[in-house]
Amino acid sequence: MSIRHGLLALLSRGPRYGYQLRVEFEASTGATWPLNIGQVYTTLARMERDGLVEPGGADEQGRAVYTVTEAGRAELERWFSTPVDQTDRPRDELVIKLAMAVAAGDVDVSAVILAQRTATMRALQELTKAKRANTDGLAQRLVLDSLIFQAEAEQRWLDHCEAVLKEKNTSTTTG
What we know:
The chain is mainly alpha-helical. It is built from seven helices and three strands; from the N terminus they run H-E-H-H-E-E-H-H-H-H. The protein has helices at about 5-10, 20-30, 35-50, 70-80, 95-105, 110-135, 140-175, and strands at about 15, 55-60, 65-70. A three-stranded antiparallel beta sheet has the order 1-3-2. Helix 1 packs across helix 2 and helix 5 runs antiparallel to helix 6 (about 110-135). The protein is elongated. The termini are far apart. The model has no long low-confidence stretch (mean pLDDT about 90).
């Protein structure tokens, strides 16, 4: 998800000022994607330049508020209706790390897997605890569920990597 689209989604609910957008963005993502306020204002400036938002005056405390334009609503509709392609997701550093550990030849790949397994299990425990404590609503629950499923999938993939490594080591010693 881009910050741009997340802010547009929040602005589609009505005018908002920068700090309010930051707080609502972090709350909506279960605080898993922290934003600094500079990112918010830089993104708002770009969206204003691109005609997606416009300044909407000031609220009762004098804070500048932004509103979404028709072009912004159209962009948000396009984003929501377009599936996320696997190639649009960032590179997976863990996959690259394990591939490079194998390629290096002198790295204890099992130790790399064990270190990651331990960290992933710790993260899974924290996410499960956060899910139990979640009182912020459905959006946060869905984010936490996604992160839990990703951590569980990572554990299964690490199991697979370990099995492949053992299989290779067994065939190397017996063959």
